[in-house]
Amino acid sequence: MNDRPILVIGNKNYSSWSMRPWLLMKATGVAFDELRIPLNTPAFDETIRNWSPSARVPALRHRDVTVWDSLAIAEYVNETFLDGRGWPDASAARAHARSISAEMHSGMFDLRGECPLNVRRVMERPHAIGEGARRDAARVQAIWREARSRFGADGHLLFGRFTIADAFFAPVVFRFRTYRVPLDADAQRYADAVLALPAVQDWIAEAAAEPERIEHYDRIGIA
Predict the structure, then answer these.
(1) pLDDT, tens digit, for every residue of 115-162?
(2) What is the DSSP code string of 49-71?
(3) Is the separation of the CB atoms in 115 and 179 below 8 Å?
(4) What are the residue boundaries of the structural domains of the chain, listed by start?
(5) Are 100 and 147 in contact (CB under 8 A)?
(6) Taking CA 31 as the corner, what is the angle to CA 103 and CA 94, rounded to the nearest 5 degrees?
(7) How is residue 50 annotated by DSSP?
(8) For the whole prediction, is pTM greater than 0.90?
(9) CA 140, CA 112: separation in Å to the nearest integer?
(10) What is the CATH number of domain 6-80?
(11) Span 91-207: which CATH code?
């Protein structure tokens, strides 16, 4: 019997929620099977409820357990496969990592709305974003700066080594990259470190190979 978990995701190019648990599992060496269901297609509508009670991605199926929220999946993976290694070792760092991951999970709505994930695309010039999205972008950079200065001295990531927090902020790195959101020097160093991760490079390559296009996202910023 195959005991590997099955991770159900949407398009790698467009699904930020799918990216988070996929990167966590890939970067930490968790063996899993992947079921990709393209978004905005009849196949998605016909299939997704077989895997996710919310009819959204991502979802994880492992034995008789189904988990259908990205943060809940990360916690399940951390407990079941990583022996707690998904979070930093020290209690203060763990609390901080959980707090910023939850803040990202439940907030930054203006940035999400104006800068949807589009991995393949890098705009020729900075995309004009509103005050709320600029405020979100500034908050993200402040989060990165504080985490790295307090807990990340031993490496290039938020808490030194790769953690769930990095998986949760990876889609934001792509939003900044696609729409050319200005970053301070420290934030740019962190973004470059995330983009250089082998798991992230795999995601980029697989997103580039997808045949599907969602025109609404691909035409943002085009007159």
Answers:
(1) 999 999 999 999 999 999 999 999 999 999 999 999 998 899 999 999
(2) GGT-TTS-S-EEEETTEEE-SHH
(3) yes
(4) 6-80, 91-207
(5) yes
(6) 30
(7) G
(8) yes
(9) 12
(10) 3.40.30.10
(11) 1.20.1050.10
